[in-house]
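User: I'm writing a short methods note and want a consistent example. For Malate dehydrogenase, I'll paste the sequence; you return only the structure tokens, no commentary, since I'll be parsing the reply automatically.
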Amino acid sequence: MSLSMNGRTLMSMLGNGVRFVSFRSKHSGPKVALLGANGGIGQPLGLLLKINPNIGRLALYDIVGTPGVAADLSHIDSPAEVKAFTGPQELQKALEGADVVVIPAGVPRKPGMTRDDLFNTNAGIVRDLCEAVAKTCPKAFVAIITNPVNSTVPIASEVFKKHNVYDPKRIFGVTTLDVVRAQAFVSTMKGTDVSKTTVPVIGGHAGVTIIPLLSQVKPSVKFSDSEVKPLTERIQDAGTEVVQAKAGAGSATLSMAFAGERFVNALLKGLKGEKQVQCAYVKSDAVQGVEYFSTPIELGPNGVEKILGTGTLNAFEKQLVQSAIPELKSSIEKGVKFVKK
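Assistant:
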């Protein structure tokens, strides 16, 4: 029997296998806190997290409606124990002992709105939630879905700095939806097996900052010049495509929930020591001129173990990066100023 160096898990030898038992609970597997569990993304994401076998406890938090979501999910015959927490007075309890905190809380985008239009409302929500995380479970991995991600990740970082618990390896902007979309669109266009198609997407998580690396698709496929530009633009504008298709009734919720669960699952596997590679928007020196940038990263027990960088870019992709830098710088500065004001 041995204790892991970071104190997160107790490794119990059972027969020929190893079981990871959370210190904080009799339930095997880590605790995930979902903040914004009653929302359009939160409900389907909660469903996917409930049936994830790597989760021992699932804490659902929102300002209203959480008991109903928890009651519904608790009837599913999967191992994760579900508990509801409602309102600011119960936020600390929701976060106690959390290994991973997932934040989809906020208002969705509507027709005609840019992600920047969401800033004033969502920035305050992320700031307040991260204040509670910094005080209650500062060592948790924090996966931020709330838009505009290009600004909300810097907001989270500044809050953690303010409380002297900042670890850039543990704060992530979830850009997995851009990867999922790119892989779906490329597979449809080229007839590849979508389950084996990988497309790195770098940059940020809004408009021109979303940079699909079509030159690095695996398995390798060729794109004509007439295909690259419209496909790139479709990936960049895919969120708007969904907003318009829903005719004002919502934004990308189901696909975002799917992508969010994929990223959280990678964090959980990394926590157990299984090396994972995902694209995410993190503090990075991969590109000069910006403090945060999304590239493929290697995940492990400490969060970001390695930033794998952009790889070799072609001329078109290099131009996309240069076009994204001013937009990213502006969004990052906006987030930092929001906390420091």
